[in-house]
Amino acid sequence: MSALDQTFTALADPTRRGVIDLLRKQPRRASDLADALGASRPAMSKHLRILRASGLVATSAETQDADARVRVYSLKPAKFGELRDWLDQVERFWAVQLEGFAAHVARTVKKARR
Amino acid sequence: MSALDQTFTALADPTRRGVIDLLRKQPRRASDLADALGASRPAMSKHLRILRASGLVATSAETQDADARVRVYSLKPAKFGELRDWLDQVERFWAVQLEGFAAHVARTVKKARR
DNA sequence: ACACTAGTTTACGTATTGGTTAACTATTAA
DNA sequence: TTAATAGTTAACCAATACGTAAACTAGTGT
Q1: pTM, full prediction
Q2: Out of A61, B6, B27, B105, which could bridge B54 as a Cys pair, Cβ 3.0 to 4.6 Å?
Protein backbone atom coordinates (compact mmCIF):
# COMPACT_ATOMS: atom_id res chain seq x y z
CA MET A 1 0.00 0.00 0.00
CA SER A 2 1.51 3.31 -1.11
CA ALA A 3 1.91 6.35 1.12
CA LEU A 4 -0.84 8.22 -0.69
CA ASP A 5 -3.16 5.25 -0.40
CA GLN A 6 -2.66 5.22 3.33
CA THR A 7 -3.20 8.95 3.55
CA PHE A 8 -6.42 8.99 1.56
CA THR A 9 -7.73 5.82 3.20
CA ALA A 10 -7.10 7.33 6.61
CA LEU A 11 -9.01 10.47 5.63
CA ALA A 12 -11.91 8.60 4.04
CA ASP A 13 -13.53 7.93 7.42
CA PRO A 14 -15.58 10.66 9.15
CA THR A 15 -14.47 9.66 12.65
CA ARG A 16 -10.83 9.88 11.60
CA ARG A 17 -11.40 13.27 9.97
CA GLY A 18 -13.10 14.24 13.23
CA VAL A 19 -9.87 13.35 15.01
CA ILE A 20 -7.92 15.55 12.61
CA ASP A 21 -10.34 18.42 13.15
CA LEU A 22 -9.94 18.15 16.91
CA LEU A 23 -6.15 17.84 16.82
CA ARG A 24 -6.00 20.83 14.52
CA LYS A 25 -6.80 22.98 17.54
CA GLN A 26 -4.65 21.19 20.10
CA PRO A 27 -3.15 17.83 21.00
CA ARG A 28 -5.46 15.49 22.91
CA ARG A 29 -5.56 12.24 24.80
CA ALA A 30 -6.96 9.12 23.16
CA SER A 31 -9.91 8.96 25.56
CA ASP A 32 -10.73 12.65 24.95
CA LEU A 33 -10.95 11.92 21.25
CA ALA A 34 -13.18 8.89 21.84
CA ASP A 35 -15.55 10.84 24.08
CA ALA A 36 -15.65 13.91 21.85
CA LEU A 37 -16.55 11.81 18.82
CA GLY A 38 -18.86 9.33 20.51
CA ALA A 39 -16.67 6.34 19.77
CA SER A 40 -15.76 3.44 22.06
CA ARG A 41 -12.16 3.19 23.28
CA PRO A 42 -11.36 0.10 21.20
CA ALA A 43 -12.89 1.67 18.09
CA MET A 44 -10.92 4.87 18.62
CA SER A 45 -7.76 2.89 19.30
CA LYS A 46 -8.12 1.26 15.90
CA HIS A 47 -8.73 4.57 14.19
CA LEU A 48 -5.68 6.02 15.87
CA ARG A 49 -3.58 3.07 14.75
CA ILE A 50 -4.59 3.77 11.15
CA LEU A 51 -3.90 7.48 11.54
CA ARG A 52 -0.51 6.71 13.08
CA ALA A 53 0.35 4.28 10.29
CA SER A 54 -0.56 6.91 7.72
CA GLY A 55 1.81 9.37 9.36
CA LEU A 56 -0.86 12.04 9.76
CA VAL A 57 -0.75 11.78 13.53
CA ALA A 58 1.76 10.96 16.26
CA THR A 59 1.68 10.17 19.95
CA SER A 60 3.67 12.97 21.49
CA ALA A 61 6.82 12.17 23.43
CA GLU A 62 5.59 12.69 26.94
CA THR A 63 7.25 14.94 29.46
CA GLN A 64 9.27 12.78 31.83
CA ASP A 65 6.96 13.18 34.83
CA ALA A 66 3.66 12.73 33.01
CA ASP A 67 1.23 9.89 33.64
CA ALA A 68 2.69 7.25 31.37
CA ARG A 69 -0.69 5.60 30.81
CA VAL A 70 -1.94 8.61 28.92
CA ARG A 71 -1.13 8.98 25.23
CA VAL A 72 -1.43 12.41 23.75
CA TYR A 73 -1.97 12.58 20.02
CA SER A 74 -1.06 15.45 17.74
CA LEU A 75 -0.90 16.25 14.04
CA LYS A 76 2.16 15.67 11.89
CA PRO A 77 2.17 18.60 9.45
CA ALA A 78 4.62 16.96 7.05
CA LYS A 79 2.09 14.39 5.84
CA PHE A 80 -0.43 17.08 5.04
CA GLY A 81 2.31 18.70 3.01
CA GLU A 82 2.55 15.58 0.88
CA LEU A 83 -1.18 15.73 0.33
CA ARG A 84 -0.88 19.35 -0.71
CA ASP A 85 1.94 18.47 -3.11
CA TRP A 86 -0.25 15.86 -4.80
CA LEU A 87 -3.11 18.32 -5.07
CA ASP A 88 -0.78 20.98 -6.50
CA GLN A 89 0.44 18.53 -9.09
CA VAL A 90 -3.11 17.73 -10.18
CA GLU A 91 -4.13 21.37 -10.36
CA ARG A 92 -1.00 22.52 -12.16
CA PHE A 93 -2.21 21.21 -15.52
CA TRP A 94 -5.70 22.54 -15.76
CA ALA A 95 -4.77 25.63 -17.69
CA VAL A 96 -3.07 23.46 -20.28
CA GLN A 97 -6.01 21.11 -20.33
CA LEU A 98 -8.49 23.89 -20.97
CA GLU A 99 -6.34 25.37 -23.73
CA GLY A 100 -5.97 22.09 -25.51
CA PHE A 101 -9.51 20.93 -24.97
CA ALA A 102 -11.17 21.92 -28.24
CA ALA A 103 -8.35 20.38 -30.28
CA HIS A 104 -8.54 17.19 -28.27
CA VAL A 105 -12.27 16.80 -28.70
CA ALA A 106 -11.79 17.04 -32.46
CA ARG A 107 -9.14 14.32 -32.28
CA THR A 108 -11.28 12.09 -30.08
CA VAL A 109 -14.25 12.44 -32.37
CA LYS A 110 -12.16 11.37 -35.36
CA LYS A 111 -10.76 8.40 -33.46
CA ALA A 112 -14.24 7.33 -32.41
CA ARG A 113 -15.42 7.46 -36.02
CA ARG A 114 -12.86 4.88 -37.17
CA MET B 1 -22.08 9.62 3.11
CA SER B 2 -20.74 13.16 3.14
CA ALA B 3 -19.19 14.92 0.16
CA LEU B 4 -15.72 14.74 1.71
CA ASP B 5 -16.16 11.06 2.44
CA GLN B 6 -16.94 10.43 -1.19
CA THR B 7 -14.00 12.52 -2.30
CA PHE B 8 -11.46 10.82 -0.05
CA THR B 9 -12.89 7.36 -0.67
CA ALA B 10 -12.67 7.93 -4.41
CA LEU B 11 -9.04 8.98 -4.07
CA ALA B 12 -8.08 6.12 -1.76
CA ASP B 13 -7.72 3.69 -4.66
CA PRO B 14 -4.57 3.66 -6.81
CA THR B 15 -6.41 2.87 -10.03
CA ARG B 16 -8.75 5.79 -9.47
CA ARG B 17 -5.84 8.10 -8.70
CA GLY B 18 -4.30 6.76 -11.89
CA VAL B 19 -7.39 7.95 -13.73
CA ILE B 20 -7.02 11.39 -12.17
CA ASP B 21 -3.35 11.51 -13.18
CA LEU B 22 -4.23 10.64 -16.77
CA LEU B 23 -7.13 13.09 -16.99
CA ARG B 24 -4.91 15.79 -15.55
CA LYS B 25 -3.18 15.93 -18.92
CA GLN B 26 -6.21 15.55 -21.15
CA PRO B 27 -9.71 14.09 -21.34
CA ARG B 28 -9.87 10.44 -22.34
CA ARG B 29 -12.26 7.70 -23.33
CA ALA B 30 -13.25 5.02 -20.82
CA SER B 31 -11.49 2.28 -22.79
CA ASP B 32 -8.31 4.38 -23.02
CA LEU B 33 -8.26 4.66 -19.26
CA ALA B 34 -8.82 0.92 -18.83
CA ASP B 35 -5.99 0.04 -21.24
CA ALA B 36 -3.58 2.63 -19.85
CA LEU B 37 -4.07 1.34 -16.32
CA GLY B 38 -4.28 -2.35 -17.09
CA ALA B 39 -7.84 -2.71 -15.86
CA SER B 40 -10.74 -4.60 -17.44
CA ARG B 41 -13.62 -2.59 -18.92
CA PRO B 42 -16.12 -3.61 -16.22
CA ALA B 43 -13.63 -2.84 -13.45
CA MET B 44 -12.88 0.56 -14.96
CA SER B 45 -16.57 1.22 -15.43
CA LYS B 46 -17.10 0.74 -11.71
CA HIS B 47 -14.19 2.99 -10.83
CA LEU B 48 -15.55 5.66 -13.14
CA ARG B 49 -18.98 5.39 -11.52
CA ILE B 50 -17.39 6.08 -8.15
CA LEU B 51 -15.36 8.97 -9.53
CA ARG B 52 -18.48 10.40 -11.18
CA ALA B 53 -20.48 10.08 -7.96
CA SER B 54 -17.73 11.86 -6.07
CA GLY B 55 -17.90 14.77 -8.51
CA LEU B 56 -14.18 14.61 -9.29
CA VAL B 57 -14.84 13.56 -12.86
CA ALA B 58 -17.49 14.03 -15.54
CA THR B 59 -18.36 12.52 -18.88
CA SER B 60 -17.97 15.38 -21.29
CA ALA B 61 -20.95 16.56 -23.30
CA GLU B 62 -20.09 15.15 -26.68
CA THR B 63 -19.98 17.18 -29.83
CA GLN B 64 -23.17 16.57 -31.79
CA ASP B 65 -21.57 14.47 -34.53
CA ALA B 66 -19.33 12.32 -32.34
CA ASP B 67 -19.65 8.56 -31.95
CA ALA B 68 -22.32 8.35 -29.25
CA ARG B 69 -20.98 5.04 -27.97
CA VAL B 70 -17.80 6.72 -26.76
CA ARG B 71 -17.72 8.43 -23.38
CA VAL B 72 -14.98 10.93 -22.78
CA TYR B 73 -14.09 11.61 -19.17
CA SER B 74 -12.52 14.76 -17.80
CA LEU B 75 -11.69 16.33 -14.45
CA LYS B 76 -14.06 18.62 -12.57
CA PRO B 77 -11.75 21.21 -10.98
CA ALA B 78 -14.40 22.43 -8.50
CA LYS B 79 -14.22 19.25 -6.42
CA PHE B 80 -10.49 19.54 -6.07
CA GLY B 81 -11.09 23.05 -4.84
CA GLU B 82 -13.21 21.64 -2.00
CA LEU B 83 -10.38 19.31 -1.12
CA ARG B 84 -7.98 22.23 -1.08
CA ASP B 85 -10.35 24.19 1.15
CA TRP B 86 -10.41 21.35 3.66
CA LEU B 87 -6.64 21.12 3.61
CA ASP B 88 -6.31 24.88 4.05
CA GLN B 89 -8.60 24.73 7.04
CA VAL B 90 -6.51 22.02 8.67
CA GLU B 91 -3.25 23.80 8.01
CA ARG B 92 -4.48 27.20 9.16
CA PHE B 93 -4.16 26.32 12.83
CA TRP B 94 -0.71 24.90 13.08
CA ALA B 95 0.99 28.13 14.07
CA VAL B 96 -1.46 28.48 16.94
CA GLN B 97 -0.98 24.86 17.88
CA LEU B 98 2.78 25.18 18.01
CA GLU B 99 2.61 28.38 20.06
CA GLY B 100 0.28 26.87 22.59
CA PHE B 101 1.92 23.50 22.71
CA ALA B 102 4.15 23.83 25.77
CA ALA B 103 1.31 25.28 27.82
CA HIS B 104 -0.97 22.50 26.71
CA VAL B 105 1.46 19.76 27.62
CA ALA B 106 1.67 21.21 31.11
CA ARG B 107 -2.13 21.17 31.34
CA THR B 108 -2.35 17.62 30.05
CA VAL B 109 0.23 16.40 32.49
CA LYS B 110 -1.69 17.93 35.39
CA LYS B 111 -4.94 16.42 34.15
CA ALA B 112 -3.33 13.02 33.79
CA ARG B 113 -2.08 13.21 37.38
CA ARG B 114 -5.56 13.58 38.86
C1' DA C 1 -0.74 -6.83 47.55
C1' DC C 2 -4.91 -5.04 45.54
C1' DA C 3 -7.96 -2.44 42.83
C1' DC C 4 -8.32 1.03 39.33
C1' DT C 5 -7.33 3.49 35.10
C1' DA C 6 -5.68 4.33 30.10
C1' DG C 7 -5.13 2.25 26.22
C1' DT C 8 -4.41 -1.55 23.04
C1' DT C 9 -5.22 -6.15 21.15
C1' DT C 10 -7.88 -10.38 20.01
C1' DA C 11 -11.67 -12.85 18.32
C1' DC C 12 -15.35 -12.45 16.44
C1' DG C 13 -19.83 -10.86 13.11
C1' DT C 14 -21.51 -8.11 9.42
C1' DA C 15 -21.13 -4.88 5.60
C1' DT C 16 -18.63 -3.04 2.00
C1' DT C 17 -14.97 -3.15 -1.60
C1' DG C 18 -12.97 -4.52 -5.86
C1' DG C 19 -12.56 -8.03 -9.11
C1' DT C 20 -14.46 -11.58 -12.54
C1' DT C 21 -17.65 -13.54 -16.16
C1' DA C 22 -21.79 -13.12 -18.55
C1' DA C 23 -25.59 -10.55 -20.02
C1' DC C 24 -27.50 -6.31 -21.64
C1' DT C 25 -28.22 -1.46 -24.02
C1' DA C 26 -27.20 1.54 -27.45
C1' DT C 27 -24.84 2.90 -31.45
C1' DT C 28 -22.37 2.17 -35.77
C1' DA C 29 -21.07 -0.50 -39.94
C1' DA C 30 -21.62 -4.15 -43.59
C1' DT D 1 -31.05 -7.15 -40.82
C1' DT D 2 -27.01 -8.78 -38.99
C1' DA D 3 -22.62 -8.28 -36.87
C1' DA D 4 -19.41 -5.61 -34.34
C1' DT D 5 -18.13 -2.02 -30.91
C1' DA D 6 -18.28 0.96 -26.46
C1' DG D 7 -19.72 0.92 -22.30
C1' DT D 8 -22.51 -0.34 -18.31
C1' DT D 9 -24.93 -3.52 -15.26
C1' DA D 10 -25.90 -8.03 -12.76
C1' DA D 11 -24.59 -11.97 -10.16
C1' DC D 12 -21.27 -13.73 -7.75
C1' DC D 13 -16.79 -14.35 -4.84
C1' DA D 14 -12.68 -13.35 -1.92
C1' DA D 15 -10.64 -9.90 0.81
C1' DT D 16 -10.95 -6.04 3.64
C1' DA D 17 -13.16 -2.51 6.85
C1' DC D 18 -15.36 -1.30 11.03
C1' DG D 19 -17.70 -2.27 15.12
C1' DT D 20 -18.41 -4.98 19.57
C1' DA D 21 -17.27 -7.63 23.87
C1' DA D 22 -13.69 -9.59 26.37
C1' DA D 23 -8.95 -10.17 27.53
C1' DC D 24 -4.61 -8.17 28.20
C1' DT D 25 -0.56 -4.72 29.32
C1' DA D 26 1.22 -1.32 31.88
C1' DG D 27 1.18 2.32 35.08
C1' DT D 28 -0.96 4.52 39.35
C1' DG D 29 -2.96 4.83 43.98
C1' DT D 30 -4.35 2.87 48.60
Answers
A1: 0.84
A2: B6
